[in-house]
Amino acid sequence: MHKLSERSKRVLYAVVQSYINYPDPVGSRVVTKRYSFGLSPATIRNIMADLEDMGFLTQPHTSAGRIPTDLGYRFYVDSISTKGDVSSNVEVEILQGLYNRLQVLKNNIELLLSETTKSLSALSHYLGVAMSPAPDLTVFSKINLLKYQSDKVAVVLFTDDGRIKNKTLQVGPEISQKDLNRIAQYLNSEFSGLTFDEIRVRLFNEISKDKTRCDTLISRALNICREALYFTFNELFVSGLSEVLELPDFADLNKIRELSRAIEDKHMIIKLLDKLSETEGLKVIIGSENTITNLKDISLIVSPCKEGDRQVGIVGLIGPTRMNYAKAMYIVENTARFITKMLTEK
Fold it and tell me: Could you tell me which residues come within 8 angstroms of residue 1 by beta carbon, excluding any fewer than 6 positions away?
């Protein structure tokens, strides 16, 4: 990383801020007019040329001004991260209104995260995203198994963070409701309080041992256990595509296609969020720092939500690299902090 003089830092900060506010390449005269540096346009032009040589700025056309690179945005984000909360009274009031609406949903984590994405998007005009925790973080509470028609079972599963999952399984007609009650009782007594990853390891070991057994009912019961407990827990919630597509950054059809593909292929975003959920606190991923090829022109700001020490989800915003980082970081960080406080105190 190049070491910048204080003067160069101020000019770079000014160029990034100008470009975020007005999506046009920034020239030296614009910087001179908007910021009181006491420097001539010629001096600022030279500093901007040096910043371009160092990779912080780029010039889209030879006659145009300059725009920030991902490295330039990274400098800007790192510098505003050290300045504390950057917010207006209006934003504080809007967030408080959001918190009041979310308060009633604290016993249903999936509905809470879904509503959070809508509010995040409405506040920022970016894409609101949230993800519920992975199986290694999701704790089993109890299960009900109900005979449904002659060869089906209705599974109703409860997690300790308030989620309810249900599905139907195909079983043989020889399995009675009495058998299902015994299986559910076994699961509830053996596995309540364990994460689903821990349960799957235990069940795998039981099923491996069962190869030596002759009792087909036990074998079928274990298979029902395995199928009954197999649910996808990394649920992704996304809101605000129409908000994002109105931004000038997405005037290019190729960029719209890339973003739409990434949203449709939820596994890509889930994989990225899953990796980010392992870290503490607010995370900002800018453009090319992203491992997903389709999202190289996109920035992502996320923060985990917790209940005590246990993670219950991750919330964030996806937008163009020309993003209002100060506002977006403030919104995401404070929303995650509020959800954590609300869930921990209940």
Answer: none
Q: Domain 6-81, what architecture?
A: Orthogonal Bundle (1.10)
The residues near 322 (Cβ < 8 Å, ≥ 6 apart) are 19, 20, 23, 67, 68, 249
CATH of domain 89-134+234-345: 3.30.450.40
Asked if 147 and 168 count as a contact pair (C-beta separation under 8 A), the reply is no
Domain regions of the chain by residue span: 6-81, 89-134+234-345, 140-228
Average of per-residue pLDDT across 46-62: 91
Q: What's the rounded mean pLDDT across residues 109-127?
A: 86
The mean-pLDDT minimum among 182-186, 264-268, 316-320 falls in 264-268
> What is the chain's mean pLDDT, rounded?
81
The answer to whether domain 140-228 has CATH 1.10.10 is no
HSE (side-chain half, CA atoms, 13 Å) at 152: 6
